[in-house]
Task: inverse folding
RNA sequence: GCCUCGAUAGCUCAGCCUGGUAGAGCGAACGCCUCGUAAGCGUUAGGCCGCGGGAUCGAAUCCCGCUCGAGGCUCCA
């Protein structure tokens, strides 16, 4: 159906200058620059079939929403680019004039029609500032942006579900034994999020030379030092291995897309103004905010039969970009450029989708565990439409029961998003901030929207149901969680550390005197041959100083080499985990490390083995 | 976008209120020490005190504007 498209922006100001006539029927006007302050700008595209009725309806809606935001100055700005099915210029102009004529107690101005205009605009930041509408002659239809979710009519009902499948009222549930679930519940349901200190992982990420802000880039684009790159690579490798084991096929898709490609249009209706834009050779490109469209556009070009399903496509996006508002960015928790493992499964029907959904739930739990987190470290939330729940109670209850502890439930009266069921694992950090790690969704909308088709048993084309899963969540966020967890250990008097398989240095060898350098080098060589990251503190420092430095770097095993060790088979090994010095042979040590890191990926040391050769990155 | 805070040596910061020679610790370079499980000692180098303006005999310090950054709020497909 054709309908008028309006993008409505509440602005501090707009300034525009008619540059030249775009079409013959352009209005005859004096091309003077114009400046308006405190104004609502409505970019309007008139489509085929729009009439005066639509004009009236549109003005009703606009004045309605302007009342809400308390602004009565309106600029109607003809804007053809919102539509690919434009009305003829004559019709469009008369519809626009009709809109201008509507008496709504507003101060209405109109930018000239048919001119190329240059303009400068400053849009306000409040939630109601951006708004897009489509208005048709028939029934009223309004796409509300995600930013307006709270304002929209969708209603959420919050509950707690216990592992036995029972639903509890959140006000009556006893949170005594489930404190972080309580935090998550308040965070989500009541939107209570007041904090007045920076999260502790920010200091740690610098101190451990993992990552830092890059002032020459945009906010939320971090730089990762060798240690951070190593940790990221290991996590990426681990997650990828697990997804491939599960049956995912790894692909790679472009990081930028044409904003005017038809497939992107509907996305922009729903989620405006949160992406980075890049202009190149007259094209308006945007940087991807997820791997979804890349994989959907790819799957659309596959010839698929129901026999091929489920088909699992996987990509580790480095990067996905989301231009979050500057004030929302926090250390490694929330970034504008982040690495996201993203796995979609195309399923032939709901039965298969549910089966697949279970597998991925298990996969995600396994991945999270491998990353060093257990059930006590995160809280699950599950969200669904009422209809889906009534038809699939057994699936929801099964997942909650597997989780083995109470879970936050959000239920919607109607489907608003593209999915009918979604769960996520949320980490609740030291300041009571919740952020999502793993997640999976059952998407019943995008198969059709992207025209992805498979041929079913009866030789008919069908759109698949698509699952969206990130088994770990953003890789940077995983690091944030590990550091926050370490900070918690530190605060509660335990020694902080990283999982051994992620430690940039696993074993440090320290000579008592320089004359033992050679011996240390040979020892570290031998240990390294077993895929263990071992280095040598070859600086001419006191033993005390070297040990202190190794401790503050969270190095798990410290071997001090002196007279005694050179002449004996046992090594004296300081184990950070126990805080004691123990005597082990090299083989025993190697065995212990291999056991603790088994089945986890390995990468060689990403820095000089010689501490004296390393630049000082952070103090 | 709004609010708060910040910007001084490579890093972390003091000095600012009450204007008058630019400070410390860490790190770096050099030297001494040759060391047994969390900091050995000394010397040296290193500064457009974010940018622009104002009042003042005189500004890192007071006033105004700007830029950049961080955190919080809103938000997070």
Result:
């Amino acid at each position: 159906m054709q309908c008028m498209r309006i993008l409505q922006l509440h602005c501090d100001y707009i300034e525009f200058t008619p540059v030249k006539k775009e079409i013959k029927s352009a209005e005859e006007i004096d091309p003077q620059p114009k400046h308006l302050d405190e104004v609502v700008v409505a970019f309007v595209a008139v489509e085929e079939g729009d009439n005066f009725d639509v004009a009236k309806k549109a003005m009703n809606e606009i004045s309605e929403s302007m009342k809400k935001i308390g602004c009565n100055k309106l600029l109607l700005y003809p804007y053809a680019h919102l539509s690919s099915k434009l009305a003829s210029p004559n019709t469009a102009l008369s519809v626009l004039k009709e809109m201008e004529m509507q008496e709504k107690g507003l101060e209405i101005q109109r930018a000239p029609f048919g001119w190329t205009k240059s303009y400068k605009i400053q849009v306000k930041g409040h939630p109601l500032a951006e708004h897009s509408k489509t208005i048709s002659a028939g029934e009223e239809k309004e796409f509300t942006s995600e930013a307006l979710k709270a304002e929209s009519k969708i209603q959420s009902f919050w509950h707690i579900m216990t592992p036995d499948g029972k639903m509890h009222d959140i006000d009556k549930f006893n949170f005594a034994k489930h404190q972080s679930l309580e935090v998550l519940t308040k965070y989500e349901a009541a939107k209570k999020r007041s904090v007045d200190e920076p999260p502790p992982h920010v200091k740690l990420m610098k101190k451990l030379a993992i990552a830092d802000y890059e002032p020459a880039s945009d906010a939320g684009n971090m730089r990762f030092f060798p240690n951070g790159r190593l940790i990221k690579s290991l996590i990426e490798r681990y997650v990828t291995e697990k997804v491939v084991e599960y049956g995912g096929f790894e692909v790679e898709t472009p990081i930028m897309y044409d904003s005017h490609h038809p497939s992107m249009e509907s996305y922009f209706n729903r989620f405006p103004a949160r992406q980075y834009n890049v202009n190149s050779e007259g094209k308006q490109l945007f940087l991807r905010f997820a791997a979804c469209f890349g994989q959907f556009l790819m799957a659309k070009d596959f010839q698929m039969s129901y026999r091929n399903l489920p088909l699992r496509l996987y990509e580790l996006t480095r990067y996905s970009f989301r231009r979050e508002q500057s004030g929302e960015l926090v250390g490694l928790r929330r970034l504008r450029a982040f690495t996201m493992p993203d796995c979609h499964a195309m399923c032939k029907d709901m039965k298969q989708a549910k089966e697949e959904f279970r597998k991925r739930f298990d996969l995600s739990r396994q991945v999270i565990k491998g990353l060093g987190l257990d059930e006590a470290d995160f809280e699950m939330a599950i969200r669904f439409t009422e209809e889906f729940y009534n038809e699939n109670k057994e699936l929801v209850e099964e997942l909650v029961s597997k989780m083995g502890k109470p879970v936050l439930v959000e239920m919607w009266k109607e489907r608003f998003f593209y999915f009918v069921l979604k769960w996520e694992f949320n980490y609740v950090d030291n300041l009571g901030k919740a952020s999502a790690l793993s997640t999976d969704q059952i998407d019943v909308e995008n198969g059709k929207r992207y025209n992805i088709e498979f041929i079913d048993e009866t030789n008919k084309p069908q759109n698949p149901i698509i699952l969206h899963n990130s088994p770990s969540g953003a890789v940077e966020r995983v690091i944030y969680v590990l550091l926050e967890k370490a900070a918690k250990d530190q605060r509660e008097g335990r020694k902080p550390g990283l999982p051994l398989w992620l430690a940039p240095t696993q074993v440090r060898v320290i000579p008592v005197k320089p004359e033992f350098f050679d011996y240390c080098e040979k020892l570290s060589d031998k240990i390294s041959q077993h895929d263990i990251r071992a280095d040598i503190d070859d600086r001419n420092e006191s033993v005390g100083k070297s040990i202190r430095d190794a401790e503050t770097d969270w190095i798990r095993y410290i071997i001090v080499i002196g007279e005694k060790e050179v002449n004996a088979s046992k090594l004296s090994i300081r184990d950070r985990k126990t805080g004691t010095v123990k005597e082990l042979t090299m083989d025993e040590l190697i065995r212990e490390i291999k056991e603790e890191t088994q089945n986890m990926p390995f990468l060689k040391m990403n820095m000089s083995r010689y501490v004296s050769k390393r630049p000082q990155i952070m103090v």
Residues 137-153 of chain A have pLDDT under 50 and may be disordered. Chain A has four domains: 4-151, 156-253+288-482, 255-287, 500-613.
